[in-house]
Amino acid sequence: MIDVRKLRLLRELGHRGTIAAVAEAMSFTPSAVSQQLSALERETGRALLARTGRRVVLTPHGLLLAEHAEAVLAELERAEAALADDAELSGTVRVGAFQTAFNSLVLPAIASVSENCSGLSVSVTEVDPAVVPDLLRCDELDLALVHEYDNVPSTLGAGIDVEPLVDEVVYFASTTRPDVGASEVIRAHSDSRWILGNPGTLCHTMAVRSCQAAGFEPRVAHRIDDYGAVLKLVALGTAVALVPQLGVDDVPDGVVLTPLPARRRTRVAYRRGSGARPALRAVVGELRCAAKGLT
């Protein structure tokens, strides 16, 4: 019978691309990962890996088995969820969240869990949505908040389930009220200095693509991920920015927010098959209650 632990390593190699990355994520040595995958090849009687230079890729048989591994691991999650006792909520739910979700969503949810579920606790880690799939698949988180923009769809990959939580307005932040329609606001600021997030983040990509769609490359004045700091810089009158709804809970005097015809969608993500776990459902329920207060 195929060893599930080896299947997990094969699945991770398919997602991460290198044995070194799999080893780091799974707290193994690279040689141990290689040995386990070689043992899996012997167990299946198929060549699962092929070397291309210094990299290792999955063969067609490896890809096929990795696809089945996703299904097997999801079924194990469903089995654990089915065996969980929904009459008694206990343990810790590990939640990953991006910065702007803390005040409006995560903190109210934690407070409600503490008040209503005495045996259940929540542990929160701030994470960028881009790393959420790997953290979920490696069982470092139980659930996480992720987001996507109209012009930056998410790519969570296999093995992850999501459900909608809240749709947010995206605002144009400046110190002057625009004299053009919402659809022309960005284009009207082609000569302005812009505040962007750091490269690699979804918020950075969203802002760049929004400017490019308006026909220009943004003149970057600052690269800031903290929207509280972004709005304070905007208040100085030297730069403009795009800010999602969850980032505008404390707006400095003098900042004008103009709603744009663009949206950011925040969703709850978890390992496929784990969504029915009572403890997870309890936390998701409290997140939903917090999200209702935003609409």
UniProtKB/TrEMBL annotation:
Q: Which Pfam families match?
A: HTH_1 (PF00126), LysR_substrate (PF03466)
Q: Which domain of life is it from?
A: Bacteria
Q: Which GO terms describe its molecular function?
A: DNA binding; DNA-binding transcription factor activity
Q: Does the keyword Glycoprotein apply?
A: no
Q: Name the GO cellular-component terms.
A: protein-DNA complex
Question: What residues does the HTH lysR-type domain cover?
Answer: 2-59
Q: Which UniProt keywords apply?
A: Activator, DNA-binding, Transcription, Transcription regulation
Family (UniProt): Belongs to the LysR transcriptional regulatory family.
Its recorded name reads LysR family transcriptional regulator
